[in-house]
Structure formats: C-alpha cells, structure tokens
C-alpha cells in the first residue's frame, strides 16, 4: 500500500531534484545550489527547506519554519472562506388571485432578498379550477417582472411545472 499523498508544498527530504534556487530566511537570493548544500544550510539555520515554486527551472526553495508556514496558509484559507458570500435561492409562493396588500408584502420581501444578493424564485400555485386559467398566473408574473425591473433580471422565464408556474429572478 502506497503512503498517503501529502498536501501542500514539499519540504526537506521530500524535494527530489539535483539543484535548487535557494532563498534565505530573510528573503535574499542565495543562488542555485545543490540539494545537499540547501539541506545543510537549512539544518545550520534551524529552519526547513520548503519548495515555493516547483515548476520553475530549477525549482525555487526557501528557508523557513514549515509549521509556521502551514499555519499561516491555513489561516488565509479560513479567512477567505469566511468572506465568501453564498447565493441562496429564496422562494416566494403566491396564488393567482392574490390581493393587492398581500402582493405588496411579497414584493417587499422580494426587494429585501434581492438587496441581500440572493436569487428569488416565484411560485404561483394553482388549485382546482384555477388550473384552467394559467393566463391569470402569467399576468401576475408579468406584473412582478415590471415592478422589479430596476432591481432584478429574469434568470428563467415563467413556465408551468405541474400545478405551479415558476419564475426565477437574480440581482442585477
């Protein structure tokens, strides 16, 4: 069974090239040296030899504290993950014969969702004989599209799916 593949840059004895371009602990370029000379320089300074740019010719290695290096990289990754905004799809359900005040409440919710950067999925549910008049639902979705024209763009046009008509809007 093969040993598990290590993640991150190679360090110390894992570097398997005859020569490396060595950068000192303080950031100054030492030059192209053999791997044995680079490893002994790392040992003398009490640091680790870490491969920074493996695809260069010869590979670039730096003298630094590998544990601290991995810790800083992990902190950066966590910080980037924290700042990342996920786009949610919020659903607003209506009926074809919705009253004006109820419509206004749903539109305020839609404005809030779009303002937060989320997509909004409008679902018009038809029951019983309402299903015989899908044009009423289409008129309602057209009214929504006109009212939200300056805030959002249509991502998917109104379409019937079984007993409901669906339209998705995304922030501009």
How would you describe this structure to a colleague?
- The protein has 4 helices and 8 strands; from the N terminus they run E-E-H-E-E-H-E-H-E-H-E-E.
- It has 172 residues and is of the alpha/beta class.
Q: What is this structure, in a nutshell?
A:
This protein is of the alpha/beta class and 172 residues long.
What are the key terms here?
alpha/beta; 172 residues; 4 helices; four-stranded mixed β-sheet
Topology:
Elements lengths: L18 E5 L5 E6 H11 L2 E6 L6 E5 L1 H18 L5 E6 L5 H16 L3 E7 L8 H14 L4 E10 L2 E8 L1
Parallel strand pairs: 1-4, 5-6
Antiparallel strand pairs: 1-2, 3-4, 6-8, 7-8
Question: Compute the gyration radius: what is it?
Answer: 30 Å
Strand arrangement within the widest β-sheet reads 2-1-4-3
Please outline the major beta sheet: 4 strands, mixed
Please give the share of residues in helix: 25-40%
Helical run tally: 4
C-alpha geometry: rod-shaped
Total strand segments: 8
Low-confidence stretches: none
Distance between the termini: 53 Å
Order of helices and strands: EEHEEHEHEHEE
Mean pLDDT: 89
Residues in β-strands, percent? 25-35%
Structural class: alpha/beta
